[in-house]
Specification:
heterodimer, B: alpha+beta, Glutaredoxin, 4 helices, 4 strands, globular
């Protein structure tokens, strides 16, 4: 089991990039009225057949060849469902995959969101060939980071360039603060 | 609040410097395993620390940090592989932020493998 939700986001999104996604949308949305924390990761990767979708929530299924169990998705699903939330995967071969986990926001068993800024920063900097649209929303306040906007400005200057990488981290940190006013999810 | 104008300024400053740094065969590669097993064991902070430290020691010209999937030794995660051109690959296991700093200082800067953190130092069955 991952100690924080942001590590599940990293894990699921790594799968998106391995599925050849060109664009991945990541939504983190807390809604105090509905008492939910929704995490949605949507990609345009290779997608899965209905049989495969059924298999990924089974701990004894994995595409890797190094061993016979895959626990990423089963634990993630369990973590969401054990807080009175829900979990779903919608996927179509050749179109993409959408993984949605809804957690009970105030549920005692909900693990913390954790360091989501580091997760998003890691994804952006180490997957320069993939575009990301990241939305962080709490009730009515939100901010969006679209790496395509960054790339348009940067041209051939890569994200791995130390100053750029630092800028992205600060952009994420400052905008997140603006949205949640330092509150910990 | 960060604005895109700041990014434009960085771009203008960098414009003339980049390009010289294109990947070449003399690059040392540092690879971090980032599959479920690695992430669960703490690979994300290790990756961040490595990249910070390499930046601070001014090694970005000759060291490239990248990530990979499951290496197949999940019980030893977080795993960091160091590939110096012309030398055998070194596999560091059960890494954490402190060990990462040490590997940068002793191996990447000093040129000496930190033997006690390598896979070879364990009694692998």
């Amino acid at each position: 089991m991952m100690p924080e939700i942001s590590l599940n986001v990293l894990d699921v999104t790594e799968n998106s990039t391995r599925a050849g996604a060109k664009l991945v949308s990541i939504l983190i949305q807390a809604d105090h009225q509905a008492d939910t924390l929704t995490i949605r990761i949507q990609d345009d990767g290779c997608g899965m057949t209905p049989e495969q979708v059924e298999q990924v929530v089974d701990p004894f299924f994995t595409t890797r060849t190094t061993r016979k169990v895959g626990l990423g998705i089963p634990f993630y699903k369990y973590a969401a469902e054990s807080t009175g939330g829900s979990f779903s995967i919608r996927s179509q071969v050749g179109v993409g995959t959408e993984v949605t986990a809804v957690f009970g926001l105030s549920h005692i068993d909900r693990m913390p969101l954790g360091d989501i800024t580091s997760t998003i920063h890691t994804l952006i900097v180490y997957h320069p060939e993939t575009d990301f649209v990241y939305t962080y929303q709490i009730d009515e306040r939100s901010f969006v980071l679209d790496t395509r906007e960054f790339k348009e400005i940067l041209g051939d200057v890569p994200f791995s360039e130390p100053e750029v990488s630092q800028y992205i981290f600060e952009y994420l940190t400052e905008n997140k603060n603006e949205v949640d006013q330092g509150a910990v999810l | 609040m960060k604005t895109l104008a700041e990014l434009k300024a960085i771009r203008e400053k960098m414009q003339n410097q980049v390009g010289l740094r294109a990947e070449d065969h003399n690059h040392t590669r540092v690879v971090v395993g980032m599959a479920t097993c690695g992430i669960a064991a703490g690979a994300r902070p290790v990756l961040t620390k490595l990249s910070q430290e390499i930046q601070e020691r001014g090694l970005t010209e000759k060291v490239a940090v990248t990530q990979t999937g499951c290496i197949g030794l999940c019980q030893y995660e977080p795993i960091v592989e160091v590939m110096v051109p012309g030398e055998p690959k070194v596999t560091y296991i059960r890494m954490n932020e402190e060990k990462a700093v040490e590997v940068v200082n002793r191996h990447l800067v000093g040129g000496h493998v930190v033997d006690e953190y390598t896979l070879g130092a364990t009694d692998m069955k």
